[in-house]
Structure formats: structure tokens, C-alpha cells
TrEMBL record, chains A, B:
It is an enzyme of class 2 (transferase). Residues 4-266 form the Pyruvate carboxyltransferase domain. GO terms for biological process: isoleucine biosynthetic process; L-leucine biosynthetic process. It comes from Aeromicrobium terrae. This is Citramalate synthase. Pathway: Amino-acid biosynthesis; L-isoleucine biosynthesis; 2-oxobutanoate from pyruvate: step 1/3. PANTHER family: (R)-CITRAMALATE SYNTHASE, ALPHA-IPM SYNTHASE/HOMOCITRATE SYNTHASE. Belongs to the alpha-IPM synthase/homocitrate synthase family. PROSITE patterns: AIPM_HOMOCIT_SYNTH_2 (PS00816), PYR_CT (PS50991). One of its GO terms (molecular function) is 2-isopropylmalate synthase activity. Keywords: Amino-acid biosynthesis, Branched-chain amino acid biosynthesis, Isoleucine biosynthesis, Transferase. Its EC number is 2.3.3.21. Transmembrane segments: none annotated. It catalyses: pyruvate + acetyl-CoA + H2O = (3R)-citramalate + CoA + H(+).
Length: 527, 527
């Protein structure tokens, strides 16, 4: 692997995307996924600018154990006419615990004058002082030159002076940012080639406003940049930042560079999808390399030629990025994956091709309805157990009902659930209350069986995710619910799907309780 | 306007997108929109290959009255070892009534041998004969060289021979297709420049598999291509084709070319969205130039500078493509943003600093509870109106109730909602049913007020997004619901928040109906 920098800014610039909000826990999860992908640098946020980002760096220092990546803290050069040492935001960078600081600096003269409201000279001093100060304090410093390309076109000498000042003050990399995203690749290539003459190590930060974020990044690298910034799934303000996976895959697979640790690119599809579960932004089916449609062919005419040589019809082997070729007419994928997954869970299906085929058909048809087992191992294992005849039946549901209402004169809605079931030879009818309908159902179900199966008292729901599939059908759409449950030691994820969000949640709740009891090797009481 | 060809293939190659299906009527509507945008050529489909496309050309000849565009029929070169005049599919092209025929020809030697299963010589004869035959019959002919770039890299002489053969036989344009989409712009630029030496007029047809479809198209044009193919909204197989609007906007606004009739580019956003209504693919908020987020700013820090000069923060004036600048009200937002946002919506808050401060506090405290206004302009506008005392009160809710239950012996859960309210001097109590609890509430609310306010019959929910905030609190967490509603012309997004998903949805539904009625200038009937 070369010294090329793959630098992710999903959690800072990506989080500028309209509607994208990340909690501190979301950020910790995302950082682990990015590290798993093998990126070199993860920009965690802007400590000091808001309490959430400050908390993230504090928690990261304690809890994040990164294998490949170095955490970077983002911040700005000191305020005009002040000292770097006394600047509160600069102090937050020093105290963030991050070994790398990425400083944003103005490099477009108009922005210095109109947004920063200071002189061109003072801006250079701000860059110089802040970089020097942080270097003296022992941090590595990267400098993001904001609005660099527009600045270069308006006042080339000044833009270049900012680059030189940053490099001379000790910045390890000077990143040229197309902040407004208006450039085309031929311009970026030419400008980066010219800036290379400063001798500074250069990086590229591109936005997609002309649909060219990835291409602009490629042009910069071809012109000599050795540091590439981007966001997972192309998240970002307006039209988004350069998609990190597409950029990296192009570098490795098209330009023959080695920028991720060996074998990590093959995890890209899984990681891209896992992060989209966290952001709750459905992944685009058409996303280059990682989209579910990206290697899908309406086979028809070409079927025989595809069989002879699939590479005639695909630009790369999709396995290189962890994706699969799909034929839309006759779906062929699945069986091998299910066999592998079964093996992983301790079920050997190799000797029973008939059962494997039946299970594959069932998974496919459920996936068509909207189920996903990738994120719901527990529900998948129960399905497998059912197919093997070993799924325990701890209770037998007769009916359930939820009432949610907002009464005259009351501010809050209340929810009440009734669950009727048979277990241990008894018929039980129990009522549960909660501050939401699913919460009420959860209480009712656990209350009903707690005497028979005391283990359920130790189960707690720790995550509850809802995704509307088939967006564009309003309240009529299909809902997918993922529930994560823990017993304090292990945790497991179950799934439910349906047009009714409560029904979908109920399925996931029943699976969650069943899986937990089975995990604890609890014996079913005769239903 | 130059003689540059803007060539749309939405209805042929775009329709290869997974899940995209167009009826003949859909196609007629799309053709009218494309003509309205001012494209030069519209590829209508492949007559003879399926009854729908044949019918489209028959109806188009009768019903389509195009102002700017010429209709093109797509087809293939004749079968091997046959004559063009006797080929049924070639006959369908002749009889299509289209004055332009676009013929797909193989130009990659391996595809000739493995997919077409004929000799390289016979393939050249197929190109020559078919072009000559159609020219003799009076049609203009464009030739799409399929897999051209891979062919050029594998067997340059043969690929060039196909181009020459097509041009010499009378093809007006030879289109170089990156059918598998694997190229990068520097390669496309270099190869197109080399092919220019054949003297043929060249076109470009790019796919987005490396995220570079638009950039590859730009590279081809800069190298000499004068015919550009693309699809509206980047529709197409796998990762899609080059987005036509982005490509054309780049040519006009970045490269200073004039490729659409005067004034048509300013219709691009409207037309892009209108076509996405027909395809029933929700438009991407992040689509360059036309996306609703494409000129949206999380203002915060920059609000004051944006006030001084918005062009510091946008790569073009959004009005040039019929889009608007939007300021997002986010957690980072302060008073200046809310003032600007108010102005955008027609409320001048400058003269009333006390009200502005009150509104800012209220937005901040609601955002702390989990509301987000950056994606919910309509709820924000209602909040503003409330603060100004101008929010209309169309109805007064007394109570609502939802019952969701799964009965013994029944597979599906059913939902029933009761809404009690006062409006127009009456007390109304109405029941609604639905396949989910929110769907049932939506039906009940609208049914209750439809006689008083018939406009609600035109409102439809087109999107329903649920986000669980505070993940990690299980079913106890806070839920945020965003609902998008349309009246067929405008659309608006409202938000609701609460521990109870149904309560949160209810808030968003009430806002949605109130906003819509206010937008239609409906007068409230005395509550």
C-alpha cells in the first residue's frame, strides 16, 4: 500500500446533507465501519463548535479502537487579530485527542473580505499562526483551502500564496476544495498541475454540483494530488461530496493504485449499506459499484453471451467490491450465500440440496416482500431452525390489539395493548401500557409470559429502526422494522415487514423473544 | 444555437432501468416534455422489437406535434448473411415514420464473435448495407457503436474500421458508446481525439458505472464530439446513463456553448420533476442542478455573507435552470438564518426583533425535542404564520383514536381510526379504515372535512419517512415523522415528533392538510 491518503469526511461534511442527522452513537458506529473499510483518516467532526462533536471526540478517545484509521478533528484557523494560543476553538482542537487536525482556511480573496471581513494579509497570518501553533503542540496538520478553485480563477497569486503559507508553516497536506462544486475535470486537472509547482503535497475535496465530483477527484489525482477526501454514499451538502467508495474503487481498479489495505475493497458494498442503515438514507440502487442495480442485467438477449463470458457485459468483476451480478429475468444468486450463512450459524446444508433449495426460495420470496436478513441474523436463524424443524414454540398467539388515542383535554396520546396467547397449558390475556403502540405491545407480551419464562425480564430492546420501503406510496407503503434486543451479554436483531407498522413491529418482537429464550436454552412449556 | 445534437434516449435506454416501465401514453407525455425542454432528438424506442414501441411510433405520427425535436427510431443492423431490404426489423424502422434512424452496430471484435457469432468482415457488411439501404429509402441515419471504448482498447484497427464504414455508408453521426460504463474521462478524451482523425462526425453515449457519465460526456465534447446522448434524471440500466440535464447545463453554463433553444434551460427543473412523476421514480434531492437540495444551504455561519453576495456560495444562479436557493433551518441555525428564511417565504421580520427572537427560541427548543425544519418547509411556514397570528384554524380537534388488531384466525392486521373534531360550526365524528394505523387516520381526517373543504380530495401523500431518534432507547425512543403531500402541482413536507409514532404522524398529517388548504387560499369555516 502506498502512502496515498484516503480521507473520509462523512461525519463532518457529509452530515451537512439536508435531513441527515447523526447522534454520537451513530458516529461511533460509522467510525468502526470506516475503519473496517480501511480508510486512512476519519474526520470526526468539529470539536468546540457544538457539544455533540466535543462529546464524540471524548468518547472516541476512550471507546474507539481503530485498526487502520487515524482520527482527524476539523476546525478553522484562529479568529482575525487574536492569537492562536488564546483561541477557544483552537484550544478545542488541541484538547480533542486527535493526532491530526484539519484546518479550514480561506483561499478566495472575496471570501476573506466579505465573509471573514479581514485583510488578505491577516488571513495569511491566521493560516501561518494556527498551523505553527498546532504543530508546536505536537499535532499533524492538514489544511483545507476553501473555495480554492474559484479563488484561483479570481486571484491566482493570492490563492497560491495561501497554499505556500500553509505548507511553509508545517501543514503536511494542502487540500484544494471545490467548495461550491462548480468545476469540470479539465479545469481541475489543469489547476492542480499548476499548483503542484508550489512543492506542497496536495489533496482534493470535490462536490457534485456539476455531476463531476468523482471525475474531478480523478483529474486531481492524475495531476499529482495524493490525498483524496470523500463521503460514504456521496453524502454531503446540496448535491453531495465525492462518493468515497466510487473514488477509491476507480483508483484501485481503473488506475491500478493501491490505496486501501489488501482485501478491504471487497467489503465496500456491505459497509456502504451498513452505514446507510445508520443514516437511515436508503442506499441508491444505481450507486456506482455498490448499488443493488449496479451489476444487474436485463439478461434476455445477452443471456448466452453472458454465460460464455460475463466480462463482456460488466466493467469489473463485482466481487472485487463485494457486489453481485444479478440477472433480472432469472435470479440466480442466493443459494451459495445461504449455504455459507447456514454454515456460519452451525447448520450444514451441503448434504441436503433439496432443503437448501426450499430455504433459498423462501428467503427470496420474503426478500421480495421487503424482508432483509443481512441485518437480522436472529430472524434468519429462526427461519433456518423452522426449516430444520427445530424452532421452539414457546407460546401460541391468539390475537393482539393496540389502542392509541388522544383524548379531549389531554396533551399526550396514550397507548394500550392487549395480547392473548396460550403457553404452559394456560390461556393468558394481558394488558400492557406504553408511551407508544409498539412499547405497549412489548410490555404486554413480556408480562404475559414472564411467569413461565423468567428470562424475558432480562431482555431489553436497545434499538428500534423503521424504514419505509416503496417510498412514493405515502402512508400506504410497506414498512420494515428492525429490532435489536439484549440480555445484557449478547444482542440480536430481528425483522418484521408489512403495510402495517404495528404488525411489522409485532413480528420482530415475537422473533426477538423467541430467539432470546432459545439462546438461553429455555425449554418450551407445552403450549 | 449551434448544430450540436442534444439526443435523449430516456424512452429507450433509460427504460432499461430496473423497475422502470413506461406505457405508450407515458411515452407520449415524456416526448412532449422533452420537446418543451428543446432537445434536438428524441429516441422513441425500437419499433418491431415489441408491440408497445411499434404502437408508440404509429401514435406519435398522428398525435405528436413537436416544436423543436425530431423523433428517432432505434434499431439494429441487419442479421448476418441476409439482406437489409428483406430484414423484418429493418422494415419496421423504414415504416416507423421517424425521419431519423439510430442503428446499433457492434464495434468490439469479441462481441462480434461471441454475441453476434459472425465474422468481423460480415459485421462490417451489415453496417454498410443497413446504413446504405435506409439512406436510399430517404431516412437520416445515426450509428451507435456499442462497446466502442472496450473494442478500441482490445482491437483499435477494427473499432476504427467500423466507424469509417458507417460514415462512408452515409451515417450522419457515429456515436461512441461506453456500453459497460467503465471508462474514465482522461481515457474518453484521448480516444475520442484519436477517432476524430477518421473525419466522421462523432457522438458520445456514456453510462455511470464509474460515477463519470457526465464527465465522460464532457471529455468527449471537449475532444470534438458534437452529439451528446443522455437520459432525463440519469435513468438507465445498472447505474444509469449520463443525466441529460446535467450534461446540457454544463455545456451551456460551464463551457459557454449554446445547445438548447434560447430560454429552455430555465425549464429544466420543472421538466425533470414532471417526468419523474410519470416514471413514478421520486426525483433525487441531490441531483445536480435540478434537485431540491441542490441549492440548499445550512446557513448558520455563512448567513451574513450569503446576504452580502449569494454567488459566493453557489456555483450558478439557480434561476438559470429553474431552481431556487433555499436556506435550511437547522440546529446550527441562528437568528440571521431564520430572518432570511422568513424573507424567502414572504415574511419580513427585520422590523420586529422581538418576534424574531421569540421565533428563534421556539425553533431551537423544538429542534431539541427532535423536530427538524430543514426538510419540513411547510411546518416551518405554519410556525411562522402562527407567530404572526395568521395561521388559519380550519378545524378544531377534539380527540382521535386508532385501533390496530390481529384477530384469531386472521392473517393480516386491520386498522381503524376515529377522529372527532369541530369545523364549520358542526361537531364531526368520523371513522376511517386503512392497511396501517397512519393510513387509517389519514382517511378519517380527510373524510371528516372533505364536505367543508373539497380541496382536500386533491391532496395525496407521496412520501412518509420515519426516523427513530435517540436510538438505543428501544421502543421507548422518540420518533420523527416526515410526510410529503402533493396536490398534483405543488408538494410540501411537514413534520411531527413524539414518543408515540402515531401521535407524531398525526401532527404531520394535521400540518399537511392545514398547509395545503392555506396554499389554496381556502377560507376557514367558523370553528
Amino acid at each position: 500500500m502506498s502512502d496515498f491518503h484516503v480521507y473520509d469526511t462523512t461525519m463532518r461534511d457529509g452530515a451537512q446533507q439536508e435531513g441527515l442527522n447523526l447522534s454520537v452513537q451513530d458516529k461511533l458506529h460509522i467510525a468502526r465501519h470506516l475503519d473496517d473499510l480501511g480508510v486512512g483518516y476519519i474526520e470526526g467532526g468539529w470539536p468546540g463548535s457544538n457539544p455533540k462533536d466535543t462529546e464524540f471526540f471524548a468518547l472516541a478517545a476512550k471507546e474507539l479502537d481503530l485498526e487502520h484509521a487515524t482520527l482527524a478533528a476539523f476546525g478553522a484557523t484562529r479568529r482575525p487579530d487574536a492569537s492562536a494560543a488564546d483561541d477557544g476553538l483552537v484550544a478545542a482542537l488541541r484538547e480533542s485527542g486527535a493526532s491530526v487536525v484539519t484546518l479550514v482556511a480561506k483561499s478566495h480573496d472575496k471570501h476573506v473580505e466579505l465573509a471573514l471581513r479581514t485583510t488578505l494579509e491577516e488571513n495569511l497570518a491566521m493560516v501561518r499562526d494556527t498551523v505553527q501553533h498546532l504543530r508546536e503542540e505536537g499535532q499533524r496538520v492538514f489544511v483545507d483551502c476553501e473555495h480554492f478553485f474559484n479563488g484561483y480563477l479570481d486571484n491566482r497569486d493570492y490563492a497560491l500564496e495561501v497554499v505556500r503559507t500553509a505548507a511553509e508553516a508545517g501543514a503536511e497536506v494542502v487540500v484544494l476544495c471545490d467548495t461550491n462544486g462548480g468545476m469540470l475535470p479539465h479545469q481541475v486537472g489543469e489547476i492542480v498541475a499548476n499548483v503542484m509547482a508550489t512543492g506542497a503535497r496536495l489533496g482534493i475535496h470535490a462536490h457534485n454540483d456539476t455531476g463531476c465530483a468523482v471525475a474531478n477527484s480523478m483529474a486531481a489525482v492524475l495531476a499529482g494530488a495524493t490525498h483524496l477526501q470523500g463521503c460514504i454514499n456521496g453524502y454531503g451538502e446540496r448535491t453531495g461530496n465525492a462518493d468515497l467508495v466510487t473514488s477509491v474503487a476507480n483508483l484501485e481498479l481503473k488506475l491500478g493504485m493501491s490505496v486501501l489495505p489488501e482485501g478491504r475493497l471487497a467489503e465496500a458494498t456491505r459497509i456502504s449499506h451498513a452505514i446507510s442503515e445508520i443514516t437511515n438514507y436508503p442506499p441508491s440502487a444505481r450507486q456506482p459499484y455498490t448499488g443493488v442495480s449496479s451489476f444487474a442485467h436485463k439478461a434476455g438477449l445477452h443471456a448466452s453471451a453472458i454465460r460464455v463470458d460475463p466480462n463482456l457485459y460488466q466493467h469489473i468483476d463485482p466481487a472485487l467490491v463485494g457486489n453481485d451480478m444479478r440477472l433480472l429475468v432469472s435470479e440466480m444468486a442466493g443459494r451459495a450465500t445461504i449455504e455459507l450463512k447456514g454454515k456460519e450459524l452451525g447448520y450444514d446444508l451441503t448434504g441436503d440440496p433439496e432443503r437448501l433449495a426450499r430455504l433459498t426460495d423462501r428467503v427470496k420470496s420474503m426478500e421480495q416482500q421487503g424482508y432483509t436478513f443481512e441485518a437480522a441474523d436472529a430472524s434468519f436463524e429462526l427461519l433456518l431452525a423452522e426449516e430444520m424443524g427445530t424452532r421452539p414454540q414457546y407460546f401460541d398467539i391468539e390475537s393482539w390489539r393496540v389502542l392509541a388515542e388522544s383524548l379531549p383535554g389531554s396533551l399526550d396520546a396514550i397507548s394500550e395493548a392487549t395480547v392473548k396467547l396460550r403457553a404452559g397449558g394456560q390461556r393468558l390475556a394481558v394488558i400492557g401500557e406504553g408511551n407508544g403502540p409498539v412499547n405497549a405491545l412489548d410490555h404486554a407480551l413480556r408480562q404475559a409470559i414472564e411467569q413461565l419464562y423468567p428470562d424475558v425480564a432480562r431482555f431489553h430492546l436497545i434499538d428500534f429502526r423503521v424504514r419505509i420501503l416503496d417510498q412514493g406510496h405515502g402512508t400506504d407503503a410497506i414498512t420494515r422494522v428492525l429490532i435489536e434486543t439484549t440480555d445484557g451479554k449478547d444482542s440480536w436483531v430481528t425483522v418484521g415487514v408489512g403495510p402495517n407498522i404495528i404488525e411489522a413491529s409485532w413480528q420482530a418482537l415475537v422473533d426477538a423473544v423467541t430467539y432470546g429464550l432459545r439462546l438461553h436454552a429455555v425449554t418450551p412449556q407445552t403450549v
